[in-house]
Amino acid sequence: MKILIGIVESGSEEYLFVLENGKPVLIKADDKLIGKFANYEILRQKPLKINDKPIKGPGVFKFRYGPVTSGILEAGCYHLYTYGEKILNATINISWKKRDLEQAMQQKSPEESLFMAERICSNFAMSHSLAFSRAVEMALDIRPSLLTHNWRTLFIESERIYNHLHVIQKLASSAAQKVLAAHLSALFEDALRLSEALTGSRYLMGVNHIGKLSPTPEVSIIQKIIDGYQELKERFTKLYKKSLSDNNYLDRLHSSGTLTQEQAQTFGLTGPSLRACGVKGELYDDSRHLIDLPVITKKEGDALARMEVRAEEIVNSCQYLIDHLRVSDSWPEEGDEKVQTENTGGTGYALVNSPSGALGYYVEIVNRKMKQVNIFTPSYPGMHAISQVLEGHIFTDFPFVVDSFGVHFADAAC
Amino acid sequence: MIRWWPLYGLKRKLTEGKEYESRIRLRFTPEKIFNRSLFVYAIDVGSSNALNFEISALKSPQYNIHRFGIYFTDSPRHADVLLVLGQPVPLMIDPLMETINQLPKPFSIITIRDFPDRPGSVDFPELPNHIADLKGVPSPSEIIGLLLDVAKTKRKQS
User: Fold this and answer.
1) What is the pLDDT of residues B36-85, one digit of tens each?
2) Residue among A68, A99, A120 minimizing CB distance to B89
3) Chain A contact for B123 (CB, 8 A cutoff)
């Protein structure tokens, strides 16, 4: 399976950044190849106003939601065309949060750019940091140690847990499940505290560097972290099972924002949104040195399926962290790593499984300064999918459709 | 099954009895009118999302901010404090100033700049009643400490 993640223009050449059978590849663009990807034009044009197709008709008006509204805390705007209750078309304007960080990274050192990458969308800080550092490591021929690889994999799972909890908490809150939402909110805070215990930062910032990591947790506190994830897993499992027996809750999610496999692939979706449509195998696997995580898929492709994928991933990720933290003190420190390099330039690219899908970086380095940086985030295709599937829904479905994709304006409009 | 939720909710005590302190000193003391009833409206002007997540975390049962009389409101017209999140992108200055126009008097403004030196960002224009300017991503307990300074509420309430 091939998914087009982004388009890279280097000099006068155009390359396609493709996720192929779980691995990122860069392929020189030609008409035959371009024709295989339905999302090529979207990624080529990269409009800041997504699905900008105003609708006119008797009684049709534009309902503007954002950029200042408590319903969507982030600076972004939805334009919903409607004659009353039904959404006829949705345009999403991401320009309110456009910070041009790709350009800002140019002529900066890799370390300075890494600092910026962590601040593009801080709830995906580890994913951005890791994708960027892996791309730079490829460009400069740096090989991190096995220990670094292992810890990075664990940090990504830690990020996945609190992000998934946040999404499910928002869905429960929108469905007026106040007790469930409050408990999930408590678990979300606990997950942030566990991330802090693991790395010293609630958002896992400042721990990953090019080719290496900051000191990992002391053995003395690892048992406490393991206990924390064990408790979180048990409490979440109990809540999740209870929530699945509540028809009031499930009815709100069922059949909301349904995507077919074909539609998901047309938008270039990855992550839980794609897995909720029954697609397996897009997962980028860089954890060959650790036990594989089971891939969760659902068939229905609606908000409920997306929630279920995330819920089961929380349980799996907790178990994954528990199992690996238990043996982390026996991981070998020496290996074939190459942290220092005399290379001052090169080209590199990398993909990371962020909580909401494949997150990629392409970098060109000259004299240890960034010449070009391209960032491909899962939120951008996610926004396109949202704008399409909102059509035909009523206003009360809006939060379930939007929140179930787990996308962010900060991520889409970097 | 729904009837069991309240029981499940009540049998666990999640609220913490900590004291919340803020390292940030207020630029000036706001009017006493906010005593033990502080309505906060948050606006994102270009944050990296960590602050938005911290606002979500603030609403968690561990902090239970309602016991201090602190509430997040859905409209700036009901707010005593405007919490401005992030280093602004130029486009968000006008919406920010319009939001300030909608605040009832007296009001206070707190800005939190998570990435103060971000290239391409702009500085805040002169903001009225700008009582605090934080840099970085403060923890929820620090934000509560600051709001308690504004509300002049007791530090610890069970």
Assistant:
1) 789 999 999 999 999 999 999 999 999 999 988 999 999 999 999 999 99
2) A99
3) no
Residue whose tokens read 């840099």: B135
Query: Which residue of chain A has the CA closest to B15?
Result: A186
Q: Which of A44, A57, A66, A67 is closest to A89 using CA atoms?
A: A57
Domains and CATH numbers, chain B: 18-151 (3.40.50.12280)
Check: CB of residue A346 under 8 Å from CB of residue A378.
Answer: no
Q: Which two tokens stand for residue B70?
A: 């602190």
* Chain B residues 10-29 with a CB less than 8 Å from chain A: 12, 14
Please answer whether residues A339 and A142 qualify as being in contact, where contact means their C-beta atoms are separated by less than 8 angstroms.
Answer: yes
The backbone torsions φ and ψ at residue A4, rounded to the nearest 5 degrees and listed phi first, read: -80, 120
Give the pairing of strands A61-65 and A77-82.
Answer: antiparallel
CA angle at B55 for the pair B53 and B59, rounded to the nearest 5°: 110
CA A112, chain centre distance (Å): 22
> In this complex, do B2 and A246 lie within 8 Å of one another by their Cβ atoms?
yes
A46-96 pLDDT per residue, tens: 999 999 999 999 999 999 999 999 889 999 999 999 999 999 999 999 999
Residue of chain B nearest A169, judged by CA positions: B56
Beta strand ranges found along A132-259 (DSSP E):
208-209, 212-213
Whole-Å CA distances, A326 to A207, A288, A319, A331, A360: 20, 18, 11, 10, 30
* Interatomic CA distance for residues A46 and A39, integer angstroms: 10
The one-letter amino acid code at A144 reads P
Q: Is A180 at the interface with chain B, CB within 8 A?
A: yes
**Domains of chain A, start order:** 1-47 (no CATH), 50-97+378-414 (no CATH), 99-140+342-375 (no CATH), 143-339 (1.10.645.10)
Could you give the ipTM of this predicted complex? Answer: 0.94
A291: exposed, middle or buried (Cβ count in 10 Å: 0-12, 13-18, 19+):
exposed
Identify all chain A residues contacting B6, using CB atoms and an 8 Å cutoff: 179
| CA–CA separation, B125 and B98 (whole Å) | 13
Could you tell me the two tokens for A221? 């506190």
Residues 339-368 of A with CB under 8 A from B: none
B57: nearest CA in chain A? A189
Tokens of A55: 């609708």
- For residue A171, the number of C-alpha atoms closer than 13 Å in the C-beta half-sphere is 32
Beta bridge partners of A372: A364
